[in-house]
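Case study 2.
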Amino acid sequence: APLQNGNQESRIIVTTRMKMVADMLGVRMPVMLGGLETKENWLLLKKCALGSENSREHPRLQDIGRKIASNLNGSPLAARVIGGRLSNTRIAREWNNISETDIHGDIVSTLLSSYYHLPQHLQHCFAYCSIFPKNWKFERKKLIRMWIAQGFVHMENGSMEDAGIEYFKQLLARSFFHTLTQGNRTHYVMHDLIHDLAQIVSRCDCARMEGNKSKTIPSTVRHVSVSSSSLPWLKEQFDLRRLRTLVVFKDSSMTSSTIPHDFLAEVKNVRTLDLTGCLISEVPEAIGYLIHLCYIALPSTIKKLPESVSMLLHLQTLDIPKKCQLDGFPKGMHLLVNLRHLGVNLTYISMIRGIGTLVNLQGSIEFHVKKEQ
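Prediction:
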């Protein structure tokens, strides 16, 4: 109706929290808005809280309101949510009480509706991201391969990777991720509020341990991330047989780390194992016990792979960093018929006995090779 009755050269400005809305409207150059300055956020908060009333009639409320606005991190959504709560009262004490409550918690509750409107397969993929810390720079390929290893991605046509990319694009279009470009590299990050949302919806399935060893892990949890120094504690406090995902982050206070004895033998149901935070030079022989393992990422300190790796018949991804000076591959690499992705820098391989067997693999193999080679 507005388009039919507007004058020639009329324009309509559409704002949205979901990029997919802009795409549906055919927008060629969307304008990505940053956060509001505290002054502007106060004006919005004041409008929502006081309406047409003259704020000068409430000098005490003005002082408290400005304080609240400074804590909203420039979020207009926060200003509207909190302003709506403040609109019901003109009592300074109650405004103070709101300023001291968990403002972000109220906003996250509002965002829950966005999550519940996601298809179930996207809900699983989004919630899974809570095992990574806040401000984590996600690599799209790596995250998709972890989703595939967990069985979150369902293929109708094309490859599993193509389906996973489509899943990711849908979450990106709904603003659950946003793009971060640094030089020639592109990563994806979650806003703090979106990450808080992921933690809320995944609290029964996912847990992240960041040095707080007093935290209790619910028995329903299947996906865990820990620092390398917390591995012994995890082994003592949690039934490792329940795990489907284990991600180990590097502890900045440690110059070396080890995997506790018999640890791998106990996580025998794990599908995704990321050991990039473990400063180890050899993968334990016990890796062969992980018969369900689909994805493994190794640290750059690894120099040798045990022969037992060839027993991982369900392995889809073997991710070895570019900096890794690997001596060679196990003789039985040709047995890994489900291997789809092999990340390794050929530059540093001094023993090539295992390379010849790779040509027999049924999966598509990726190598990290220097451009000049």
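Residues 222 and 243 are 5 Å apart (CA to CA).
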